[in-house]
Design brief:
The chain has a domain of 84 residues: Structural Genomics Hypothetical 15.5 Kd Protein In mrcA-pckA Intergenic Region, Chain A (Roll), CATH 3.10.290. It contains four helices and seven strands. By secondary structure, the chain is an alpha+beta fold.
């Protein structure tokens, strides 16, 4: 019998604020976006101190190591007590690049976009995603 304490992975991900809600954490596990010790996991998988979790949160693939277990959600200032962030800086650069990407702004008062305008916007955004 293994007597080391354990907690569900979806609950821990929510408690350390990697996901906004527990249901989002559960959905991410079911979609295969969460890996524990480089193995895909279900939401009810138990995690222990020392496990390495890789979770896709938006465009960033976060890699964290479990330092401590907790049942309840904690404030953002206390999160570093419960995890070690092993995420490479290049992942955070992807997030910065996405926020700096150009957007399709229209002049105020221009009204609804025409069919031609929508087609231009669609090709603009599809070209920006490809690069």
């Amino acid at each position: 019998m293994d007597t080391t304490p354990a907690i569900r992975v979806d609950r821990w991900l929510w408690a350390v604020r990697l996901y906004r809600t527990r249901s989002l954490a559960t959905a991410a596990c079911r979609a295969g976006q969460v890996r524990v010790n480089d193995l895909p996991c279900k939401p009810a998988r138990s995690i222990r101190v020392g496990d390495v979790i890789i979770a896709l949160t938006g465009v960033v693939r976060r890699t964290v190591k479990v330092r401590a277990l907790l049942e309840q959600r904690v404030g953002a200032a206390k999160v570093p007590e419960f995890l070690d962030d092993l995420t490479p800086a290049s992942e955070y650069d992807q997030l910065k690049q996405k926020s700096l990407a150009p957007t399709g702004n229209r002049p105020r008062g221009a009204g609804r976009p025409t069919k031609r305008d929508r087609r231009k916007l669609t090709t603009f955004f599809s070209d920006a995603d490809a690069s």
